Amino acid sequence: MELSKELNHFLKKYREYEIQVLEPTANEINSCLRKMEKPEFWNNYMTGKGIATPSPIRQIMSRIKHPDKVVEKIFRKPDLFPDKLSLNSLKKMHDTIGVRIIVYFSSQLSLIDKELRNSSFFEIDPNTPPEAFFDPEKLMRLGLSHIECKQKESGYTSIHYMVKLKNSSISPEERPVFEIQVRTLAQELWSELEHVLSYKPETRPHFSAKRRFQILSREVSVIDEHFNLLYEELIHNQEIASYKESDTLTFENTPKVLSEIGIQCALTELNPILKTLFSRDIKTIGEFLRIATPLRLSTIRNNYVSITGHAPNSVEMITTLSILNKSASKEAEIERIIAYIHYQNINKNQD
Description:
Elements: H1 2-37, E1 57-64, H2 67-76, H3 87-92, E2 97-103, H4 109-117, E3 122-124, E4 131-133, H5 136-141, E5 148-150, E6 158-165, E7 178-184, H6 185-198, H7 207-240, H8 254-260, H9 270-279, H10 285-291, H11 294-308, H12 314-322, H13 330-350
Parallel strand pairs: 2-7, 4-5
Antiparallel strand pairs: 1-2, 3-6, 4-6, 6-7
């Protein structure tokens, strides 16, 4: 009976803590993360002219820990939470807010690491240094040997950071430490399936199942490595790319062609850009450069600013350029530009 009363009192306090601290903090965190998701955020990490911006982030997820999970963790780890069901235990629990950042390729993990260590948004908790659940040799190859390396029996792979917001509406002494997990898309696949198939707090997986998870973890690591090699090869080919006007536009030469006319694109934007151009029968570098005149680029940019209040991103610029192919007159071009911008605005508002 006493435990029930104590539990109800704690859950009430946790709800108050959620409203006063966790929810405002989570909103501020998500505002920062939305900026990090934008390709242009990563322009400073370009390796050279004519190279696509890395735009490493595939997905970001965040959550506030469910009350049941909070209570379960307090009882499961009494040494960490000697004050039991109390506000003090909540402040010691560093995953009441959790963030997961998924990158495409393993070499992009070092980009996220560098950004988090030099972030204007976050500061790493000095009392809880980052941990990498990783193969030590691979961690060294990625330039992440400064992170403490650990290994889980299951084969789980991820990098964990404990951080605080640098600027927040919450006072510094009340500002919660929260966890950011960073992993690749392949590592996320393994983690999600392992969670579904074997994560049971009250039981441990059978030995044969554990063994298979370890084998699958190694196989996923090999797949991750192969995709990363392909990614690095693409970046290398972009660096050395040369072209002539009769060449077909490709993933390798398009960033360099775009940079010549003052457009910087992200790696993730190359596919939609090339699909758009090819669908408009603009397939060679010469065909593209003939429509991408300084006057047209300026007209598109000015109309975007006038109508939407912001300059077009690279995909918007290229898509708008592509509809001007074979225009009958300058007046027709401007009509197409304005109509297309309004059309895009309607679609965005509906989304």
